[in-house]
C-alpha cells in the first residue's frame, strides 16, 4: 500500500534557525506532491505543490521543497523560521488517478 | 484560491443521536468532495470520496451505514454520523475538487470538531 512518512514527529527551533522537514513516499508511479500547514485552531492551507517540471518548488511564506525522484523524497525547507511558523506540517502524495495520502505530520515549535 | 466552508465548526451531542455536517464550496462547483477524519495529533485519514449525483466510495474499514454521505449538488456535500458514540468523537474535514481547478488539487474546509458525550 502507498504510504507517506515524515521524519520527525516534533521539531523545536529558535527563531532565525533553518528548517528542513523530511518526507518520503512509497509509491513508484507518477505522483503529485504537496505540503500543507495547519496553524493552531485553523484549517489546512496549501504551502506548495509539485506536479512536474523544476523539482525545486517555491511556495508561500518563504517555504520551498525539493523533489528527488530517486530518493522518493519531497523535503520542505525554510532558511530562517519565525515564531509565526509554529504549526503542524503535513506532506501529502497524490498518485495520478488515485486519492491523496497524507503523512503523519510534523509539529514545528519555534521559540521566540 | 477556492473557498470551502463547513458547518457547524463544533458540535457536542449525546450518545445515540445523529449529527449532520455540511460542506460547501463557495465559489466553485465541486464535482468531487472528500471526507477525512483527524484524530488528535494524528494525520488525516480519508473516509470517503463522493462525486456529485453518485453514491460515495468508502475507504476500507469505514462503515457506510454509520457515516452517511450525500453529494446532491455541485456545491454541497453532507456527512451524517448516525447513532454517534464517544469513539466517533473526532475532527472531520472535507475537501473539494472541481471544474476550473487543477484536477489534482483539493481545497480544504476548516473542519468540524465532534464531541460525543
Would you give an account of this structure?
The complex is a heterodimer of chains A (112) and B (117). Chain A contains no helices and 12 strands. Chain A is mostly beta strands and 112 residues long. In chain A, the strands form 3 sheets. In chain A, strands 2, 5, 6, 10, 11 and 12 form a 6-stranded mixed β-sheet that branches. Chain A has a 4-stranded antiparallel β-sheet with strand order 3-9-8-7, with no helix packed on it. In chain A, strands 1-4 form a two-stranded antiparallel sheet. The termini of chain A are far apart. With 117 residues, chain B is mainly β. Chain B has no helices and 11 strands. Chain B has strands at residues 4-7, 10-13, 19-25, 32-38, 44-51, 57-58, 67-73, 76-81, 90-97, 107-108, 112-116. In chain B, 35% of the residues are buried. Chain A binds chain B through residues 32, 36, 42-46, 49, 51, 90, 94, 96, 99-105, 107, and chain B through 1, 34, 41-46, 49, 93, 95, 102, 104-106, 108-111.
| Fraction of helical residues of chain B | under 10%
Q: What is the residue-averaged pLDDT of chain A?
A: 92
| Largest sheet entry of chain B | 7 strands, mixed
Give the N-terminus to C-terminus distance of chain B in angstroms: 37 Å
Rounded Rg of chain B: 13 Å
What's the total helix number of chain A?
0
The global form of chain A is: globular
Kindly report the greatest chain-chain contact and the residue count on each side: A-B, 20 and 19 residues
Number of helices of chain B: 0
> What form of chain B results from the Cα inertia axes?
globular
| Average pLDDT, all residues of chain B | 90
Which series of helices and strands of chain B comes N to C? Answer: EEEEEEEEEEE
Q: State the share of residues found in helices of chain A, binned by percent.
A: under 10%
Poorly predicted sequence stretches spanning 5 or more consecutive residues of chain A: none
Amino acid at each position: 500500500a502507498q504510504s507517506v512518512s515524515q521524519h520527525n514527529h516534533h521539531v523545536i527551533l529558535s527563531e532565525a534557525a533553518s528548517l528542513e522537514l523530511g518526507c518520503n513516499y512509497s509509491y513508484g508511479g507518477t505522483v503529485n506532491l504537496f505540503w500543507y500547514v495547519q496553524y493552531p485552531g485553523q484549517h489546512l492551507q496549501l504551502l506548495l505543490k509539485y506536479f512536474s517540471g523544476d523539482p525545486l518548488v517555491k511556495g508561500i511564506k518563504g517555504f520551498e521543497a525539493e523533489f528527488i525522484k530517486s530518493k522518493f523524497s519531497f523535503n520542505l525547507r525554510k532558511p530562517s523560521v519565525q515564531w509565526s511558523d509554529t504549526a503542524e506540517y503535513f506532506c501529502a502524495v497524490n498518485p495520478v488517478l488515485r486519492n491523496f495520502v497524507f503523512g503523519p505530520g510534523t509539529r514545528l515549535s519555534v521559540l521566540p | 484560491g477556492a473557498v470551502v466552508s463547513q458547518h457547524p465548526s463544533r458540535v457536542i451531542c449525546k450518545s445515540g443521536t445523529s449529527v449532520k455536517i455540511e460542506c460547501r464550496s463557495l465559489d466553485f462547483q465541486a464535482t468531487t468532495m472528500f471526507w477525512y477524519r483527524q484524530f488528535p495529533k494524528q494525520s488525516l485519514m480519508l473516509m470517503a470520496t463522493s462525486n456529485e449525483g453518485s453514491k460515495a466510495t468508502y475507504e476500507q474499514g469505514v462503515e457506510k451505514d454509520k457515516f452517511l454521505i450525500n453529494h446532491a449538488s455541485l456545491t454541497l456535500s453532507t456527512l451524517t454520523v448516525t447513532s454517534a458514540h464517544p469513539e466517533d468523537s473526532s475532527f472531520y474535514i472535507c475537501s473539494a475538487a472541481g471544474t476550473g481547478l487543477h484536477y489534482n488539487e483539493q481545497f480544504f474546509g476548516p473542519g468540524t470538531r465532534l464531541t460525543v458525550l
